[in-house]
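@channel anyone free to eyeball this complex?
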Amino acid sequence: MSHYSVFSVLKGGLTSQRNWSRAWRDPAPREAYDVIIIGGGGHGLATAYYLAKEHGITNVAVLEKGWLGGGNTGRNTTIVRSNYMLEDNAHFYEKSLQLWEGLSVDLNYNVMFSQRGVLNLAHSDAQMDAYSRRGNAMRLNGIDAELLNREQVRQYAPMLDFTDNARFPIVGGLLQPRGGTARHDAVAWGLARGADRLGVDIIQNCEVTGFHIENGTVKGVETSRGPIRAEKVGVAVAGHTSHVMAMAGVTLPIESHLLQAFVSEPLKPFIDGVVTFGAGHCYISQSDKGGLVFGGDLDGYNSYAQRGNLPLIEHLGEEVCAMIPSVGRLRLLRHWAGIMDMTMDGSPIIGKTPVQGLYLNGGWCYGGFKATPGSGWVFAHTIAHDEPHWINKGLDLARFREGRMVDERGAGPVPGAH
Amino acid sequence: MSRIDGFGRIDRSKPLSFTFDGKTYQGFEGDTLASALLANGVSLVGRSFKYHRPRGVFSAGPEEPNALVALRSGARREPNTRATMVELYDGLVAESQNRWPSLAFDVQAVNQVFARFLPAGFYYKTFMGPFANTRLWMMFEHVIRRAAGMGSATYETDPDTYARRSVHCDVLVVGGGPSGLSAALAASETGARVILIDEHAEFGGRLRQDRYDIDGMPAADWVAKSLATLASRDTVRLLSRTSAFGYYDNNMIGCVERVTDHLAVPVDHKPRQRWWQIRAAQVVLATGALEQPLVFGNNDRPGVMLAGAVRAYLNQFGVLPGKRAVIFTSGDDAYRTALDLTAAGAQVMAVVDSRDTAQSALTQAVRDAGIEVLTGHAVVDTHGSPTLQRVDVMPLTGGTVREFTCDLLAMSGGWQPSVHLSSQTGAKPVWNAELSCFLPGVPKRPERSAGSAAGHFTLYGCLSEGSVRGLEAAKAAGFSATGTFAIPQVDIERFAPTAPLWEAPDPPPGLFGGHPKKFVDHQDDVAASDIQLAHREGYISVEHLKRYTTLGMGTDQGKTSNLTGLAIMAALRGEPIEKVGTTTFRPPYTPISIGAMGGSERGQQYKPRRRSPMHDWHDARVGEWVPAGLWDRPRHYPATPGESMRDAYIRETRQTRGSVGICDVTTLGKIDLQGPDALDFINRIYANGFSNLPVGKVRYGLMLREDGMVLDDGTVARLGETHYVITTTTANAVPVMAKIEFLLQAVWPELKVKATSVTEQYAAIAVAGPKAREVMQRVVDLDVSNAAFPFMACAPCRTKDGVPGRLFRISFSGELAYEIAVPSDYGQQVWDALMAAGREFDIVPYGLEALGNMRIEKGHVAGSELDGRTTADDLGLGKMLSKKKDFIGKALAFRPGMTGETRKKLVGLVPVDGRSSLPNGSQIVSVDHTDPPVKMLGHVTANGFSPERNIPVALALLEGGLAREGETVLVTHPLKNIAVQARVTGPVFVDPEGKRLHD
Amino acid sequence: MFQFKCPHCGLRDANEFTYGGDATIAWPDLGASEQEWFDAVYQRENPRGPHREYWHHAGGCRQWVVVDRDTLTHEIHGCRAASETQK
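replying in thread with the prediction:
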C-alpha cells in the first residue's frame, strides 16, 4: 500500500507512476462479518473507517450496489459547516467539523477541506435578528460565528448585488469562518482507502436485496452476490433509506425528494467562500477547479429519478442572477440531481431501530455531506456499543413519536419544506 | 492570409474588423471567430488547463476543447467562449485566456517541465502537511485556485436582457442538417405543427461543410430550397442559433436561442438570448454526430485538427488551415479531406490509415489523385514549436519511423452520434461494435433519432432516414401523409469497414527515454497515461475514471474525449466497451448562459412587490420600508427629517397610547368563510371553541399544525348566521388558505363551506388609542359607543361619505381600538377621512416598529414567537385548547417532548439597570455561566421600549417560564459583545387587566 | 416539466401547481388516537415507483387534485379532483 506524500509523488514522476498500487482492494464478500455496513457512500465508509480505527472492529464489510461515492457523496455541492442553532444539531455538526479539520492527515488523503467561510446573507433586520439568535447560540456552544454588516459583507463578497436595483438589499450576514468546502469524491476515496488499510472489505457492485431477521434480531443480509451473515448491520444508504429499511419491515418518517445542483464553466477566482442568499434559497461557492457550484430548493415532489426539471432550473437561475448581477454572462456547464431523504423535522436520524442489531443512519435532508466524518464517528460508536453517543442521542428515530423534533426551520412535518 | 478563392460561403463583399489579444485583423461576414483567426494565420489561440500547453483550433463546432476566448469586454465580458461558435461581427474584441503575461510567452508553461510530477490526482496525495489542523492545504490551495480555472469573469452587472418563451408543437426536430431538414419536410407535409431548430446561424449541418450534390444541385441550393418550402408552411417555425440543451419530463425540451449574440450589442430592444420551453408531442433527434480525435504522441499541437473541421474551414469559410497536410484516420471519411485539400491547392503528404486495408471508391479516388496511402500505420509523434512542423509515422506493428513535413494534421477517429438528448431521457446508449460507436438506446419518451445521430453515416442514409422518422413522428402525433413524398436523389456511398484505433503506439524511446504525452482530453490535459494510472489505482469504473482524472469535465463536456477514454479503460480492464459502460450525459448539451436561465426575474424584477392601497401616502412620509414577504410595510414615519427610527417609534407609541394612532394593517390575511357548516369547520381548524360566538362578535383564534405545534393566530369574526371572516398573520395568509382549501376539498368535502381569500379585496386600517372612538365616530355611520359596539364587536358599516366596510373592535396594541376594512379602491379615501377626523387629537400614523413595540408591551405573540417550534402552552395560551371538542393538532399536542417543565415558555424581561436594551436574538444564560458550551435557558424573541414604564422591555422564551419570575438571568449577545442582566417578569407590561380594551 | 390534466382546467404545466404529498394516507378522525395521528402525520411508505399524491392547482382553479405518478420514471398516469376521490 503506497503512503502518499510529496516524496511519493516525486518518485512517481521518476518511475512513470509505477510506484502506485490500488487505493483499496477489490475483495469477494466473505460468508460472515462482525458488522455489515450497507452503502458505500461517505457515511458508510466513514462508519467502517471509525469502527476499525476507534473501536478496533475490523471484520467489517461495506456493501455498495454500484460504485463508491456514486450517490449523494458525488452529487452534492460540498459545503461543510456547523452553523446550527438547535443543540442536538449544533454539537453533532461541530463534532463533524472538527473531524474535517484533521481528516486529510488522518486519512493520508487530501480531501481538500478548505475553510474559506460560509456566509448567510440577511436582507432585513428581522432576518439579522434570526441570524443573531443562531449565531449567539453557536458562540455559546463553542462554535465560531461572526455577524457582518453590509460593508463587511461587501468586502467578503463584492460580486453580490449592492446596487440600488436589488429587490431585497443586503443588510448584513452571519459568517462561520471555519466553514468551507471539500472535494467530495476524495472524501469517499480517502475513507475507502483508510478503511481498507485497516482491514475493512469494501465490496462494490453488491446490492442488498433483503435482511435475515429472527425474533426481531438481525442475522445478516441477502445480496446480489449471495447471503452474508452478521449480528450487526448498519444502514447508510441516503436517498434509498425508506426502500432499504422497508425490507426490514421498518417504516420511516422520510420522503425522498430531488435536489438539483449546478456548476458553471471553470473561472479564475470569482467567489472565495460559500455564500447563501437570504431572500430566496440559493447557495454558491467556487470549486478549486474554478466552477461556480450552486443549488437551492428541492424540485418539490417525491422522486427517485435523479434528474430534475425546468421550473426549478429557471428558479435557480433567477435566484443566482438576483444574488450576483454579473453572473448572467457566465455559462452553466452541468446540472444534475440527487435524492434526498427528507425527514419530518429536517434533521437526520442516527441510532437504533426497532430491529435488534439493525442501526440506521439516514434522513440527511440537505445536510449529509458536511456530516460525513461526524456521522461515521457517532454511528460507529452506536454500533460498537449498541448505544448512541451523547452527541447523537437526540437524533434518534423515537424522537418523532415522542414529540422531541429537532426542527431547525420550524417548518413542521412537511419534508419538502425543510 | 489563407483564404482560397472559389471556396466558402462567406460574403467577401462585407469585410469585418476584429481584435484578438489587442491586434486587429480582418474577416468576412459569415466567418466564425475561429475561421477568421485561421484565415489570418493565427494558429496559437489558447493554453490548456493544467500544463498550459499551446493549443490551436481543433474543431469547427460546439465540441471545441481548445479555442476558448474571453469575448467582448467590460460588463459584457464572456469568458470561455468557443471561438468556433462565435459569429464574427464588426468590432469584435476577444482575448486569449489562462496565460500570463502573454499567449506566446506564458510563465506557467513551466508546468510542462514538471508534468511528470503532476499526473492525474497528484493533489490528493500531497499538500496536506505532516500535522493535522495546520491549514497547510489552504496555502497551496490559494496558488492552485489561481492557476486553475480558465477565463476570468467581471463583477460588473450584466447589461443585457433575457426573455422566456413557451410553445407547443406536434413535432420538434432538433438539428437542421440533412436528416433534420428531411424530417421537418416530411412531418410538416402532413399538416403537423413543426419546429425545426439548429444551433448554428445557418441550417444545413454538414451540408454547409461538405461538397455534395442533391437532386442534381449543389447541396447548398437544396438546403435553400428546403428552407423555402418549410418557411412557406405556416405550421412550421424555424429557429436557428438555438441549442436544445436538455430533455425534460413530459417531452419538454429546453432550448436557448442566441437572439443578438451575433451583434456587437443587442438592438431594437431585443433580448440577448431567449429561453424556450418547447413542449412537443413527438420529437425527432437529428443531432448529428461528432468526429472523434485519435490519441498519439503530442497530438495537441496547434495544427492538429479534426479532419471534418478541416473540410468545414475549407468549404464553409474558404480558409485553408494548412498548405502541407497529413491525414491520419481509422475510417474512410477523412479521405474526403484529402480530396478537398487537394482541390483547394494544398499538398497532401500522405494519408495514414490505421486499418490493415482500406478499399472503397473514396479511398481509391485518393490513391488516384496520387496521394500516398499508408495503411496499417499511425502517427506516433509530432514536432514543431509552437505550431506543427513535422509528424512521425510508424507501422502499427513497430518498425521504421518516417517523417513527414507538414503544417496541418487532419485526423479522424470515427464519428460518435450525439446521443446526449436521448440519453437524458434515461435511454441508455447501446454500443455498436460494427460502427464502433454508441447508438441511442430504446426510446423511453415519444422520440426517435434520425440520420447520423442514429448511426446512418451516409448522406443517403440521413436524407431517407430523416424523411422516414419525420413522417413517423407526425403520424404518431395523429397526422397522416396527404401526398407522396420523394426522397432526394444522391450518390450512394459505400465505405470500407471502420476499425477503431483507440490509442496509437508510442514512438521509439527518445534520447532520455520516456514517451510523449498522448492526450485524450485536450482541455483538461488528461493523457492516456493518466487513464493507466487510474486503472493501476483501482479507479476503474467509468465514473471513478472521470472524476479521478477529470476526463470529460471541461467546458466541452468530453464531446471529443469520453469515448476514447472509455475505450482505453476497457482495454486496460480487458473487457468489452459495453461492459464498462458509459458515463451519464448530463445536461446541458452545451454550456448555456446563466442569464438565460434566470430570464427577466432579476434585480427589482426578482420578485413581485405587494403594495397596500395606501402605499403612496406612506411613501411620501415613511422613514424606511420593511419587506414582509413580498409586501412592503412602513417601518416608521419621522416627524422631523433627522428623527431616528428609535425616537420615531417611541414617539408613535407614546402618541398612540396618549391620544390616537393609525396604522395600515392591509397585509394581514383575510379569508371569507360562508356556508351552513362554516361554524363546524372553524371549530375543527381552530384549537379554541367558537360554538357560542354570536353574530356581530369577534374572537381571537389559535390554529395548530397537525403535529400539535402552533401554526398561526388571528381573529374570527361572525358577520352573519353562516358568514365568517377570519384573519391570518401576513406570513401565513397563503399557506393557511391553501390548507383550508385542502381540508374542504380533500378531507371533509361533505362540509358545506365556501372559502375565499379576500386579502387583496380589502384595505384594513387600525385606529388605536383613547381617542380612537371619537375619531372613528366621526368617520363611520354607526354607533361605536361602548354600549352599542363593545370590545370584540363587529358589524358591517358605511363611512359618512358612503364607503361600505366592516368594522371590528379588536386591538393588537392593547388600547381602545377599531379596525376598519373597506374595499381596496377606497382605502386611501377612508384613510384620509380618518386622518382628517383625528387631526384635532393629533392623530399619529404608526409603522411596523411601533406596532411591534406595542404588542410587546402587551405580551401579544407574533411571528418571532410563532416560529414553528412553540406549543400553545409555551406561549401561555394552553388554556385556550378546547377540552369540549376535537380539533386539528389535538391528538399530537401532548406528546412527552412537547409538554413538561423543560419547555421554553413566554416571559417578559426588563433590564436590571433599567436602561440597557435587551437586543433581539440574544440568548439567555444563567448569570454564573462558565465557558462554552454554555447551557442556554432561552432567547429573546422581541424587544422594545415602553415609554409608559420608561424602561426597555423584551419578550423571551425561557426554560421554566413564569416559574422563574423575579429571577435574574443574563441576556447575552456574544456576536455583539453585549451582556445585560435582566429580571424575569410576566409578559404583559402595560394595562395587565385589559381595562383600556373594554372602556 | 410535468403536465397534469386538471379535471377543471385541462392539461396544465406543473409549475401552476404546488405539491401536497402522499394522497394514500387517510386523514384520521379528529378524535382518533395519538398513534393513528402519528402514523398519518409522520410515517411514509415513500415508494420507489407508483405514487398517489396531492397537488394544489394554486396558480389555476385552486382545486386540489390527486395525481398518480411514478417516482422512478416521473410518468403520470392520472389526475382527478381530490373531492372526487373522497366520495
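from a first look: Chain B has 22 helices and 50 strands.
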